[in-house]
Amino acid sequence: MAAAYDAIVIGGGPGGYSAAIRLGQLGKRVLCVEAERLGGVCLNWGCMPTKALLHVGEVMHAAQELKDMGVEFPEPKVNLAALNKWKGKMVDDLVNGVATLYKANKVESLAGVAELVDATTVRVKKADGSTETISAPNIIIATGSEPVSLPGMERNGKTILNSDDSVTLSDIPKSILIIGAGVIGLEFATIYKRLGADVTVVEALDHALGDTDVEISTLLLRILKKQGINIHLKTKATSVAVKGAKVSASLQGEINETREYDKVLVAVGRRPRTSNLGLEKVGIKLERGFVKVDAQRRTNIPNVFAIGDCADVPLLAHKAMKEGIVAAEVIAGQAAAYDPMAVPNCVYTDPQVATAGFSEEQAKAAGYEVAIGRFRLAALGRARTVGTSDGMTKIVGDKKTDLVLGIHIVSPTAESMIAEAVLAIEMGATVDDIGLTMHPHPTFAESVMEAAEALHGRAIHIVNQPVVPTPAAR
Ligand code: NAI
User: Fold this and answer.
1) Among the atoms of ligand 1, which is closest to the Cα of residue 235?
2) For 168-207, what is each residue's pLDDT tens digit?
3) Closest Cα to atom 35, ligand 1: which residue?
4) Measuring from atom 2 of ligand 1, which residue has the nearest CA?
5) For a pocket test of ligand 1, which of 183, 310, 345, 418 has the largest count of ligand atoms closer than 8 A to its C-beta?
6) Residue list, ligand 1 pocket, CB within 6 Å
7) Distance in Å, CA 200 to ligand 1 centroid
8) What's the CA-to-centroid distance between 148 and ligand 1, angstroms?
9) Which atom of ligand 1 is nearest to the CA of 185?
10) Which helix (H) or strand (E) holds 326?
11) Is 82 helix (H, G, I), strand (E, B) or coil?
């Protein structure tokens, strides 16, 4: 008997739903199995609710700052019930949007927990305890990732939180300790600080934000500290003990103390969700805990694909979406491959950080002789019009060829500005190409052009340092 579906997608997050929708667009019969809600972590507990909370915090902060600009408000106050209701509706609308797209593209959806029985069969356990067994010639695993916990600091959802708990905001703590200065730690530090909490962040390493360009992460930390967030590098929380409604935490490193906080947020990374999926039974290989895949996102079993957080770093929604589209097109017989020159990375602090391509350290380690162009926001008219002067754009170029190797931005709207950097790197643009490209004035995007010009010693709005000549002038 012919299978009812051409493909089964396990997981309805950004990776899984993009794959399912593209399969539908290509005329394939597809079933998406999702254990919780369509949209996955991104829509329900991650990207979307955190960005909504960050927006609220930013508006509150802006309302306070407007005093200097001649506009006065009474002290802004948060109505938590109204905020949670608005955020919940926004998330529901997005989730319903995915369901609508499924319908329009004839993607079928099944609620339940899926497990591979063999390379073409999936068993789904539904909420009522019943099971359904379905076959398809292609399977895409898109099960995502989950927060890592620290031994002795396991989440209780009330005082010891992970990122999923933190978007729910049952109350605004007076004080919070955040363990880990990665992207989750710093975004939540911004949210809680803006909503009025006393925020302390501890990070075990001597820098924040993983392998982000160190000059950029150092600049961000300086700005966040100026905003009143306490950040301690080379510091660990050695123990955490719940004491009634509070948590006592001992810190060791740059700061050594034991004190009570209302809440502790553990933000020390996420790990791929690969257990209880039947992967071992089917013989699917893992590497460093991730499902091992090739450029077409096939596992070692050619008709089983894996995409998104469960299939290697970086754990980013846009990487998952791209992989989902690649896997769908491969299943439909097209010549697609996942081979990006640069994956953008955005951190939604205030100001935002966005990066693409090599950091200065990575470019040097890869053997490049680097040339650096910097342009600081203090010299950017557009930044001054919104009362900002902290931030910069940094371009890492190859001294020999002038190729753009990486662009790193600390600025309002960095999230959008970084698209230019990705395009430049994908198309093999030179730093000179960016400098010669007319950018609109006044905009934040001008800082990318000015940083490119600075690399060649000809930025207009700063005093240039002695630098690398353009290829034409050599
Ligand atoms: P992360 O791996 O980025 O950062 C965790 C940090 O915790 C590291 O710097 C690590 O050194 C530190 N750490 C680990 N153990 C520690 C300890 N005992 N004491 C003190 N510090 C400790 O992980 P994070 O921030 O949890 O994010 C997980 C993933 O989620 C990231 O890979 C990211 O790609 C993704 N994500 C992306 C977002 C975005 O694109 N805006 C937003 C949220 C998450």
Assistant:
1) 20
2) 878 899 999 999 999 999 999 999 999 999 999 999 999 9
3) 315
4) 269
5) 183
6) 46, 150, 179-185, 187, 202-205, 210, 236-237, 267-270, 314-316, 346-348
7) 16
8) 9
9) 25
10) helix 317-331
11) helix
345-455 topology per CATH: Enolase-like; domain 1 (3.30.390)
Amino acid identity of 455? Answer: L
Q: What are the DSSP E strand ranges found in 274-350?
A: 286-287, 290-291, 304-306, 345-347
Task: Quote the crossing angle between the two packed helices 446-455 and 414-426, to the nearest 10°.
Answer: 50
pLDDT tens string 43-100: 999 999 999 999 999 999 888 888 889 998 888 899 999 999 999 999 999 999 999 9
Ligand 1 midpoint to CA 210 (Å): 7
CATH class, domain 160-268, is: alpha beta
Q: Is this structure's pTM higher than 0.90? A: yes
CB-based contact 231:203 (threshold 8 Å): yes
Q: What is the CA radius of gyration of the chain?
A: 24
Domain 7-147+272-331, CATH number (from 3.30.43.10, 3.90.850.10, 3.30.450.90, 3.50.50.60): 3.50.50.60
Whether 7-147+272-331 and 160-268 share one fold: the answer is yes
Sequence-ordered list of residues with C-beta below 8 angstroms from that of 331, at least 6 positions apart, any chain: 6, 7, 23, 28, 138, 140, 305
- Catalytic positions are 441
108 alpha carbon – ligand 1 mean position (Å):
34
CB neighbour list of residue 454: distance below 8 Å, 6 or more residues apart? 373, 374, 375, 462, 464, 465, 467
d(CA 397, CA 391): 20
At 57, list the tokens.
């915090």
